[in-house]
Amino acid sequence: MKRKSRQAVAFYAMVSPWLIVFLVLGLFPLLFGLYLSFTNYYGFNMDKLKWVGLHNYKMVFTDTDAMYALWRTFVYSIFSVPINVVVALCLALLLNSQVKGGSVFRTIFYLPSIIPAITTIFLWKQLILSSNGILNMILDIFGLEKVNWLGYDYATLSLIMMSAWGAGGGILIFLAGLKGIPQELYESAKIDGANASQSFFKITLPLLTPVIFFNILMGLIGSFQVYMQPILLSGSELLARPIRPNYLYVVHAFQQIFGSQRFAYGMALLWVLFVVILILSIIIFSTNKYWVYSEEEPGR
After folding, report:
1. Is residue 30 part of a domain?
2. 95: closest CA among 31, 163, 167?
3. In this structure, how many other beta carbons lie within 10 angstroms of the beta carbon of residue 110?
4. pLDDT for the residue 144
5. Beta partners for 39?
6. pLDDT tens digits for 120-147?
7. Which of 27, 44, 50, 218 pairs with 286 at a CA distance of 20 to 30 A?
8. Residues contacting 104, CB < 8 A, separation 6+
9. Is residue 238 part of a domain?
10. Which residues are within 8 A (CB) of 99 and not within 5 positions of it... i.e. 6 or more apart?
11. Range of lowest pLDDT (122-131, 162-171, 279-288)
12. 15 falls within a domain
């Protein structure tokens, strides 16, 4: 056997476990779910499947609950994604400064992002309980009126605040970007008389735009897939119906699939979500050339 052939065999032998798992547990369920979305499958009629074409997809756009949930997901994403990016950037800038014990603070800020989601949710419920939560105790100290953070008016705000709690992953990515900026640029700017604000807006921010772009894109994709947080903020069961303002799109899809046993319709809901995320990602990528700094030479 030739050397190249041996290398090819060794390569495919190495990647075969991942490839098999991907095909069996990834690609096949994905394509099978797409097929089911065009049928009348409801969980117990696999032997009597009937092709219904685009019927389930038409139902998505005539379902008032689905359209409301999609709108609320847009609202949540519009506010949560920029807030998370700004919080992560500000904390990364603080941690990147030469402060004593910086590594300890990095660990502290990153911890919320690796704590299990259920633990984080129940912790936040203790913070924002309407009567004796810590936030209301702080408001009471300053003589301010207590707020029902889990009520209709403030439920989405509570969800957005909780999402900012887990900004640790973004902090690490921003820190990596900050470490990659050559210090010579700051030294040259200082010699030219630039102050800290000018250095930030003329050097740091432009060179961080690829990292900002990445965090915005990943944050957007993640915000459209939020499920557990709004559910457990309202109750303690994974199939509980959250308060109306927090009735997000994936919540509605899971309600249809596991609550109402409408599997085919639920698959159609999720594939519509996939298309929405794809379109938004394409839109974000189309803006890349206008604000994301690139080291490529013009004309290349």
Report:
1. no
2. 167
3. 18
4. 81
5. 51
6. 777 777 777 666 778 888 888 888 888 8
7. 27
8. none
9. yes
10. 105
11. 122-131
12. no
Residues 6 or more apart whose Cβ sits within 8 Å of residue 56: 37, 38, 264, 265, 267, 268
Q: Distance between CA 59 and CA 262 in Å, rounded?
A: 12
| Domain hosting residue 90, numbered range | 54-291
The number of domains in the chain is: 1
User: What is the average per-residue pLDDT within 39-59?
Assistant: 90
- 131 contacts 161 by C-beta, under 8 angstroms: no
Output the CA–CA distances (angstroms, integers) from residue 148 to 130, 139, 241, in the order listed. 4, 12, 19
Quick one: pLDDT band at residue 9, thresholds 50, 70, 90? confident
- The model's pTM: 0.86
Rg (CA), the chain: 24
Query: Does residue 22 fall inside a structural domain?
Result: no
The CATH number of residue 161's host domain is 1.10.3720.10
Q: Cα dihedral angle (229, 235, 241, 242), rounded to 10 degrees?
A: -50
